[in-house]
Amino acid sequence: MMMSIGMASLPLIFLLIFYEVSSADWGVSYSNSQICALKNSSVTIYCAYTYPTGHQIKKVFWAKNSVKVGEEYTNLSEDPEYSQRLQYLGDKQNNCTIRLSHVTQKDSQNYYFRFITELDKWIGKPGVSLTVTDLQVESPETVKEGHNVSLTCKSSCDLTDRATFIWFRNSQPLTERRDRNNQLLLQSVRREDAGRYSCGVQGHNLTSPVVELNVTFEPSSVSVSIISPSGEIVEGDSVTLICSSDSNPPPEMSWFKEGMFVGSGRIYSISKISSDNSGEYKCKSNNEHGEKDSEAVTLNVMYPPRNVSVSISPSGEIVEGDSVTLSCSSDSNPPAEISWFKGGRILGSGRTYSISKISSDHSGEYKCKSSNKHGEKYSDAVMLNVTYAPRNAVVSISPSGEIVEGDSVTLSCSSDSNPPAEISWFKGEMFVGSERNYNMSKISSDHSGEYKCKSRNKHGEKNSDVVILNIMYPPRNVSVSINGSGVIVEGESVTLICSSDSNPPALDFSWFKGRMIVGSGRIYNISKISSDHSGEYKCKSRNKHGEKYSDALTLCVMSVRWVLWFKAFGVGVAVGGVAFGLGGASVYTCLTKRMNRRSAMKDSGNSDPSEDFNLCNAYDEL
Ligand SMILES: *[C@@H]1O[C@H](CO)[C@@H](O)[C@H](O)[C@H]1NC(C)=O
Ligand SMILES: *[C@@H]1O[C@H](CO)[C@@H](O)[C@H](O)[C@H]1NC(C)=O
Ligand SMILES: *[C@@H]1O[C@H](CO)[C@@H](O)[C@H](O)[C@H]1NC(C)=O
Ligand SMILES: *[C@@H]1O[C@H](CO)[C@@H](O)[C@H](O)[C@H]1NC(C)=O
Ligand SMILES: *[C@@H]1O[C@H](CO)[C@@H](O)[C@H](O)[C@H]1NC(C)=O
Ligand SMILES: *[C@@H]1O[C@H](CO)[C@@H](O)[C@H](O)[C@H]1NC(C)=O
Ligand SMILES: *[C@@H]1O[C@H](CO)[C@@H](O)[C@H](O)[C@H]1NC(C)=O
Ligand SMILES: *[C@@H]1O[C@H](CO)[C@@H](O)[C@H](O)[C@H]1NC(C)=O
Ligand SMILES: *[C@@H]1O[C@H](CO)[C@@H](O)[C@H](O)[C@H]1NC(C)=O
Ligand SMILES: *[C@@H]1O[C@H](CO)[C@@H](O)[C@H](O)[C@H]1NC(C)=O
Ligand SMILES: *[C@@H]1O[C@H](CO)[C@@H](O)[C@H](O)[C@H]1NC(C)=O
Ligand SMILES: *[C@@H]1O[C@H](CO)[C@@H](O)[C@H](O)[C@H]1NC(C)=O
After folding, report:
1. How far is the CA of 560 from the centre of ligand 1 (A)?
2. Cystine design at 393: which of 37, 291, 376, 415 (Cβ 3.0–4.6 Å)?
């Protein structure tokens, strides 16, 4: 008789050593007295029974423990907990095999086979002890990467040696694993080995609850990324950096900018970024197992131009002809484009603006404009002050036109120079003044002459052309002179000359004898003088600025008789010559008057006849 028991789906090789319960010929043998079965599996209990020959089998059934109704065991097939699951596979002769499917923990009992003949009955004690077990993975919670760890698939009873354990990680069967009985040995654990482990037995659907294996390791793959903004970083933006790292347990993170600690946490935010925040950032990730730095990430903060200024080279004074370079400096990111302006006019572009031979036309206010795509800014204006020697010196006369004595006249010297020139005035070669305006308040003819000004600054000097001041004045020093041979004798010709000083020279002369106009022209001829011509003569000189009378000249004409008389006294000629030389015509006149009663006095209705008369009287005494 052979009875074998085991687990339904296991490739069991039946144990042929049967477990026999017998007395004489009575007996029940089971394949196994103890069966370890997985929950929900089907268990087949192989069973055989014997009885003495001649007996007829009346009843066969299986019973559980010693549950009896009265004196009789209860038929397990009639127990509602079993009825659906229990299957009697044997017969009514010697095969008592059964199968119990979907075993549960409650099924862990002792089971016996009972058979009854018409003569007697038999219970196959001590029966079969069934233990139903589930599976549990036993594992440490955490393991450090690189260490060895073993996971055990535990059951409450011994499954047969033949049971093949299978392992799952995250529900995926592990094929290539090094199994050792019910243990999973993970050597030199890698982080990928972390996961939800469960175990099972080949051929069974039952798997253990999952157990989490936590592989700890030091931080690796530390990296920084910029979450926002996505593109270019412009000053004022809010910038957020995030540090990611592979690490278990989760790391602590700290942030460094160029080696300086700036913050901690997974996220580093700069709410209003400025260019000062530009630079290389790293994060450091560390946990109990170690630490690691990320690669540096560069924040390049863009900003519009600022600090725009112009510098002039060479510094200091700029003299015409110099080479001058203006440089525009500005701070911006990205670098700016520069353009140049003089006044409102654009000159060009480029960081520098050069003028190779500067002239005064280049003087003025310059500025540069710096622009990039984030904005633009103008520099302050700088003054380019080109200095140069006086270019010219020009004298102007005010008032213009004719200058008449007594006028106020101003000479002005204008000159183009930088810095402004010092002015000197010259009349002829003589220095006369140093103001820009040379004033002559009541000009006189003495001021006539050649004037020029000299304009001078530290770069050179320049003389003006000469201007001539020609000062007009009315006649003056009007006098009458007589051109004759000392003694005026009747019949001779006499020439009276009117001389005067005036500017312009007088052309208009009038002659008066007494109050009567007797002629004109500078020279007054009397071709055959007679005593009738005796009298007082004056001339008047006139130009457009005025007129003036000369003093009166008294003309005394000698009669021929008188001359003869005079000659008879000999010396008289010499005396008369001397007297003539000293006293002039008056003496003669007076002498003549004394000799000639027909005095010309009656005619001399001049302005001051009494004086002349007196003068003549004085000479009468001679
Ligand atoms: C028991 O096994 C059957 C198939 O044999 C399956 O359909 C059922 O879901 C299982 N029950 C449990 C609780 O595992
Ligand atoms: C035990 O119960 C089953 C099901 O009710 C029945 O088929 C079988 O005949 C019974 N056996 C005996 C000996 O009563
Ligand atoms: C008993 O019956 C079962 C099921 O039919 C069978 O597998 C087994 O081989 C039989 N045992 C013997 C000894 O014939
Ligand atoms: C892990 O197991 C291997 C092989 O048994 C052994 O050589 C190694 O030293 C073990 N490592 C540790 C960390 O125990
Ligand atoms: C396992 O379950 C599947 C479906 O749930 C079923 O088809 C299969 O027969 C079961 N295997 C065992 C050994 O119970
Ligand atoms: C692993 O274990 C550590 C503590 O040992 C814990 O801090 C960490 O959160 C765990 N990791 C996972 C993924 O559960
Ligand atoms: C540039 O301008 C900023 C303000 O806009 C100022 O704080 C800084 O000192 C300036 N730098 C220079 C070199 O002028
Ligand atoms: C230019 O420079 C000169 C000398 O340095 C100075 O006298 C003059 O005032 C300056 N001109 C201007 C417009 O600044
Ligand atoms: C010269 O004359 C001008 C114009 O009459 C006057 O403005 C100026 O002050 C005078 N200068 C001097 C030094 O008298
Ligand atoms: C003419 O007048 C000026 C002054 O007006 C005087 O100085 C000068 O001597 C005069 N000349 C003659 C020849 O009388
Ligand atoms: C003055 O008189 C002399 C001779 O008497 C004569 O030669 C001369 O030309 C006269 N001069 C003038 C200016 O009339
Ligand atoms: C005056 O007389 C002189 C000489 O007699 C003569 O040369 C001159 O032309 C005369 N002049 C006039 C204006 O008659």
Report:
1. 193
2. 415
Ligand 2 touching residue 59 (CB < 6 A):
yes
Q: Which ligand is nearest to the CA of 331?
A: 7
pTM, rounded to two decimals = 0.59
* Ligand 4 binding pocket, CB closer than 6 Å: 147-148, 187
Instruction: Report the distance separating Cα 472 and Cα 11, nearest Å.
Output: 155
Helical spans, DSSP H, in 505-570: 560-568
Residue 90 DSSP class: -
Q: Which domains does the chain have, with CATH numbers?
A: 19-133 (2.60.40.10), 135-209 (2.60.40.10), 217-299 (2.60.40.10), 303-384 (2.60.40.10), 388-469 (2.60.40.10), 471-622 (2.60.40.10)
pLDDT at 583: 40
Encode pLDDT of 86-135 as tens digits: 999 999 889 999 999 999 999 999 999 999 988 888 988 889 999 999 99
122's tokens: 């038999």
State which of 497, 523, 526 you would mutate to test the pocket of ligand 12, scoring each by most atoms of that ligand within 8 A of its C-beta.
523
CB of 434 sitting under 6 A from ligand 9: no
Ligand 9 lined by 398 (C-beta under 6 Å): no
Site of tokens 């278990």: 248
pLDDT tens digits, one per residue of 268-296: 999 999 999 999 999 999 999 999 999 99
